[in-house]
Design goal:
- By secondary structure, this protein is an alpha+beta fold.
- It contains 3 helices and 12 strands, in the order H-E-E-H-E-E-E-E-E-E-E-E-H-E-E.
- The chain has a 10-stranded antiparallel beta sheet with strand order 3-12-1-2-10-7-8-5-4-11. Strands 6-9 form a two-stranded antiparallel ribbon.
- Strand 7 (181-186) and strand 8 (194-203) form a beta hairpin.
- The protein starts with a helix and ends with a strand.
Length: 262
């Protein structure tokens, strides 16, 4: 073998070695790039996941409930009104259905314009004027012979009026108010003491007032709501252990009235 052939052979070996080393270096570099890409994807994925977790909306909290299991009522508006007493002829001989929507559900009444036209005419007017919007039922009686829920004062304090008063009508002679009765609450004045307040009777009630209280309707649906509120009792510091503000607050949110056609 000539010297030239030996040099050519040595050059080919060197070139082969160089090619092998270059291929190995390129493979290592490729593996490093792949590892870097995988690591980057993992980091980005982790950041996206963490961001998504942080941005996940919080579930709505459970609404607070009263002792009777109802949603908490809104704050009362605290206002009364200055309205004119409606003509009782507008309700005379008519029957109405009134739906009291409360924070505990609907209480449905049937109003008797034949027996108590003035009270029914007033009730219909006040309902259409949204007088009882967010109005608390401020007084509860749970004692023997005095089982009722008093409502109708938008101030929530028991002193609010619609700006007028009217006389007692259709009062029971024996002072007995059966379960399911709807009657007007009033001041001591039997001539002008009726206004916007009324009571829902959930157990036979005896009110031995000589002038009585106007019965103007009956509860046809939702008496169980009054029972639930009564079962929770009254707040401490009331008139007595069995009469005072309901421990489970209940408010009239709105009232809808429709005339029943014969």
């Amino acid at each position: 073998m000539t010297k030239k052939q030996e040099r050519d052979r040595a050059r080919r070996r060197w070139e082969k070695q160089q090619a092998t080393q270059q291929a190995k270096a390129e493979k290592q570099a490729r593996l490093k790039r792949i590892a870097a890409i995988v690591a980057t994807v993992a980091v980005v994925g982790g950041l996206v996941g963490a961001l998504a977790w942080r941005m996940k909306p919080e579930p709505d909290p459970e609404p607070q409930r009263t002792a009777a299991g109802c949603e908490m009522p809104p704050e009362p508006l605290g206002t009364t009104a200055k309205l004119e007493l409606p003509d009782k002829a507008t309700a005379a001989g008519k029957t109405y259905t009134a739906t009291l929507t409360t924070n505990c559900g609907d209480i449905v009444l049937e109003l008797d314009g034949t027996k108590a036209p003035q009270a029914v005419a007033s009730f219909v007017q006040l309902a259409k004027a949204d007088y009882w919007l967010n109005s608390p039922c401020h007084r509860l009686g749970t004692g023997e012979g005095f089982k009722l829920l008093q409502c109708g004062d938008p101030t929530g304090g028991g002193q609010g009026t619609p700006g007028y008063g009217f006389a007692v009508e259709n009062a029971p002679k024996d002072g007995t108010y059966p379960r399911g009765t709807v009657a007007m609450a009033r001041t001591q004045d039997p001539k002008k003491g009726n206004g916007g307040q009324f009571f829902l009777v959930n157990g036979e009630t005896k009110l031995p007032d000589p002038n009585g209280y106007t019965i103007f309707g009956t509860i046809t649906q939702g008496l169980d709501i009054v029972d639930k509120v009564a079962a929770a009792g009254v707040q401490p510091g009331g008139e007595s252990e069995t009469t005072g503000a309901p421990a489970a607050p209940i408010s009239i949110l709105r009232v809808a009235v429709t005339e029943k056609k014969a």
